Amino acid sequence: MITKVADLLNELRIAEVKRIDQEQIKHTTTIGDMYESLTASVLDQAIPKQADLKIVSGFARTTSGIMSGQIDCMVVCGSGRPLPYSKASIWDIQDVIAVLEIKKTLFSGQMETAYDQLRSFLDLHWDDFQSSPPGNVNIGPALRAYRLITGLEPPEHPDASKLPFHLEMFYRALVVEQISPVRIIFGYGGYKSEASLREGLFKFLEKHAGRQGFGGSSLPPLIICGQFSLVKVNGFPFTYPMKEDRFLIYGSSHQNPLYFLLELIWTRLSYRFPMPDWFLSDLTLGQLSPVLSGRAVQKNGQRGWEYWMHEPKLLPADQEPATPIWAPLAVSEFGFYLFTQLCAKESLPRVPEHTGTTTQEKDEFQKMLDARIIGYDNDKIVLLTDRAECVFAPDGSAYIGENDTGRLSAWLEKMFFHKSD
Fold this sequence. Notes:
three-stranded antiparallel sheet, 421 residues, alpha+beta, 12 helices, single chain
């Protein structure tokens, strides 16, 4: 369903860009206003109507009265104050859900400008949050992201400092990401291919190597350039398992970029507002190629992030990536036994009875680890899911999957009862 919504909005976006280009306007400020208005129009049709949300431009203000720079486009809740004789308005920074910097053309210079604006907004938001915390904050989404990526049970928040440094910094980066507004660079043109956009990011990071403000938590969750996207895979909602103590930070795609925009913004909205059942149980997954991995390090008394660049074989630009569909894990009697024991006892010792005694059982145990159904809490095996269920399907197989949002139920209906998307 979400892909259908994204496809409709993308068709609208493409058609309206053609209308703008046909006007042949040369005045740069007017051109900028036109693209910002187009983006606001698309977003206005993308946000759920049951939430009291607005698409605005203007400024955000902290509790102490510090003002952000002018923002091209913001998704906000609550109420703001319009500026006299202007379309811009001022909003409480904690009421900002998403921030977009709009560029007609995105190359290195525009990426630099947009990045600086979004990083400044992130710093301002986080400083305001720390100086005026809103009481108890549910960091459940960040903890879930930590489980899905690391395969480990996260500590209680006060104990995060006891983690190894790279895990502690990753844990804290996830908390910052959950609490902060979604930050998006939205370019309508510029880099001509997925590969050139990836290369643009590499050169951008190399240029700023060793400088503060370019760590994993500062990078924006989404960079769009025409039909190409760089998407953060840190669990909000896209994930990729940690490998060799390295976290995949970005993936790239030429799948419809508005699909990624919708997923990021709607996922953030789901932490604060009721969302449609079809979104929560949607089976669509993003098709992403690894771009950049990273790890927080301490060297010579300094802290920072190390990055590794990936160069996978990319699909041709004219070949649409297949849209993968979420599926639960099929398990044998061994997997079913292990799951039911964990449901009953919460944790189990890491002994052959539970990790497997045969090659087949050991392979299935590893598949359950890879699927993040189970993981480790020190020397114990634990469930990493919020509400996993094991079901016996009409094909006679047993399946285990997360069903906290109804995804497992939706998969069963689609696969065995032919319910349309």
